[in-house]
Specification:
CATH superfamily of the largest domain: Domain of unknown function DUF4426
Structural class: alpha+beta
Number of helices: 1
CATH class of the largest domain: Mainly Beta
Strand content: 25-35%
Largest sheet: 8 strands, antiparallel
CATH topology of the largest domain: Immunoglobulin-like
Order of helices and strands: HEEEEEEEE
């Protein structure tokens, strides 16, 4: 290979490397110079896990997650969290109720109250017993909003104490 060809290849290689570095620098500069979102743009939130923190069933609506926990002794709970699964105090909601459905039995409607610490909502109902709960309808509303109901199918995997 001639010296002229080697020189030409070296120049082309050097020019390519220089061009690549310039493009990278411009892209980085563009990203750094972009203004932060302002006004009504909501901040990006990392979405949290859907693993139950209290052994219950996770459901969600918009930016609100709720975990329905049915204890075999009849104590039932609803825990609320934000989109990143950070716990929300009971005061985030104005009212919470649940209706439990069992095959061949009358529906059981419970109005829940905040627990003593104000961390979640709780009610005492009938023990779960041998007739399984097949569906729970959780109804709640934030202050000033209309109540909304969420039907939840309960998996058939037996009951256990939490």
């Amino acid at each position: 290979m001639s010296t002229k060809v080697r020189t030409r290849r070296a120049v082309v290689g050097l020019a390519s490397a220089l061009l690549l570095m310039m493009v990278s620098a411009c892209a980085k500069e563009d990203a750094e110079s972009r203004p932060e979102p302002r006004g009504n743009t909501p901040p990006a939130v990392v979405h949290g896990s859907h693993d139950p923190a209290h052994g219950g069933i996770i459901s969600m609506t918009a930016d609100l997650h709720f975990e329905t926990v049915l204890h075999s002794a009849g104590r039932h709970e609803v825990h609320f969290s934000d989109g990143a699964r950070q716990p929300l105090p009971a005061s985030t909601l104005a009212a919470v109720s649940m209706t439990l459905e069992r095959p061949g039995a009358q529906q059981e409607r419970l109005d829940l109250d905040p627990d003593a610490r104000g961390a979640f909502w709780v009610a005492e109902g009938r023990p779960l017993g041998k007739v399984p709960v097949t569906k729970v309808v959780v109804t709640f509303n934030r202050p000033g909003e209309v109540p909304t109901s969420f039907p939840i199918a309960v998996p058939d995997h037996g009951h256990h104490e939490h």
